[in-house]
Amino acid sequence: IAGITQAPTSQILAAGRRMTLRCTQDMRHNAMYWYRQDLGLGLRLIHYSNTAGTTGKGEVPDGYSVSRANTDDFPLTLASAVPSQTSVYFCASSRDSGRTDTQYFGPGTRLTVL
Amino acid sequence: AQSVTQLGSHVSVSEGALVLLRCNYSSSVPPYLFWYVQYPNQGLQLLLKYTTGATLVKGINGFEAEFKKSETSFHLTKPSAHMSDAAEYFCAVKESGGSNYKLTFGKGTLLTVNP
Fold first, then answer.
1. How far B16 CA lies from chain A's nearest CA (Å)?
2. What is the pLDDT of residues B18-53, one digit of tens each?
């Protein structure tokens, strides 16, 4: 059972370039999430999706977009990367978006924008 | 609005000593509380969670946490630290009631275990 896979593992990107971070889960979870982790700030929610076909904005959505065409995949796109988007990005999923549902996390993508 | 405060960004203990990681929350309604652990270069893994019922919650790897409503706290403890416990620990709150489905994380506490 793979759980959640993320690609790439790490990436160095020139400012202004477009980048898509991939996330795939095989648990048939309805809800998926993207977080960024920065030193001293913990994890902050970028975007979420409660079910396929729907998405919503989290705490720090500016500069990012997502889509949820099917249950398994939830890509995160940076249309024009900036250095402040240097971070570690985690994808997560949960069975549903209910109060007791546990979120499971992928291994992360380390992104550096120069 | 809800928030989570983890007291101490870095805690250092000796192997075999008690581990105590502090977490306080603010919430207008009874919260659902979680502790996650992150080992170096890995994603987050659930340690334990409190939803309803017994206020003392046992998790994996010998950790436990107690929900204290009067103190708005959910501190994480382990009686005897092991070298393998060295990691970063995150407390998170999910507010019950309404349609709030998002976790709010604390800023994390890095646990160092000295031999």
1. 28
2. 999 999 998 777 788 999 999 988 889 999 999 888
